Amino acid sequence: MATSGKIKLVTFVTGNPNKLRELNSILLTAGLSDRVVNKDIDLPELQGLPEMVAREKCRLAAERVGGPVLVEDTSLCFNALGGLPGVYIKWFLDALGPDGLPKLLAAFPDKSAEARCVFAYSRGPGQEVKVFAGVCPGSIADKPAGDNRFGWDPIFKPDGFHETFAQMVPEVKNTISHRAKALSLVRDFLVGELE
Ligand SMILES: O=P(O)(O)OP(=O)(O)OP(=O)(O)OC[C@H]1O[C@@H](n2cnc3c(O)ncnc32)[C@H](O)[C@@H]1O
Ligand SMILES: [Mg+2]
To answer: What is its main location (predicted)?
Structure first.
């Protein structure tokens, strides 16, 4: 376990292959993708504020991996619902599907929403946890549009675009997304952290 100096590799702990694909293509452009390896470990997720969820996931991941780890937690917040589903989006999506989520807003004129991504990094068990957050403002479409490959992408329209994330080519999503914004902070940090 590295406790001082520079580190060689970081393990990105996620069970979500779409997150991994996006991380790899975003970090590829920074020349860092070969320094991040993946481990699919099903970590228990404490629920609460997004930063706390990511911090706790990171603490557990560091214990399981025994070295430098990166994790992330993603929320989808509907402004008309005071920020819900937020960190609970995975369970809402599983229960309602992309078709059902817009129905939660049927009674509200305000369809605005925010996609939030919090990455958390630690050098190993018991080490400090650093967090890096990215937010993408947008709105919830009335019905899904685009390919159904990744979660709620078919219903989220980022501000300034007429398409949902699912209708965009990956290069566009990966430039403007919540994940891209958080990863640009992660990338700046990792440049100093990696040998
Ligand atoms: O193993 P982890 O990294 O926790 O992966 P996960 O799929 O459980 O992910 P989260 O706990 O962060 O839950 C977020 C939910 O939102 C979905 N999601 C995350 N990022 C997304 C994105 O950029 N576009 C669409 N859906 C996304 C994801 O599939 C989950 O259903
Ligand atoms: Mg999860």
So the answer is: cytoplasm
Average pLDDT, the chain: 95
Q: Cβ(74) to ligand 1 under 6 A?
A: yes
User: Is 152 marked within a binding site?
Assistant: yes
| Greater model confidence, 146 or 4 | 146
Protein residue closest via CA to atom 21 of ligand 1: 151
- The protein residue with its alpha carbon nearest to ligand 1, atom 31, reads 90
pLDDT in tens, 22-45: 999 999 888 888 899 999 998 988
Q: Which of 55, 192, 51, 61 is nearest to 129 (CA)?
A: 55
Map tokens 């979500």 to a residue: 16
Residue nearest atom 20 of ligand 1, based on CA coordinates: 74
By CB neighbour count within 10 A (0-12 exposed, 13-18 middle, 19+ buried), where does 43 fall?
middle
Task: Give CA–CA dist 166/163, Å, rounded.
Answer: 8
- Is 138 annotated to bind a ligand? Reply is no
Segment 162-169 shows an average pLDDT of: 97
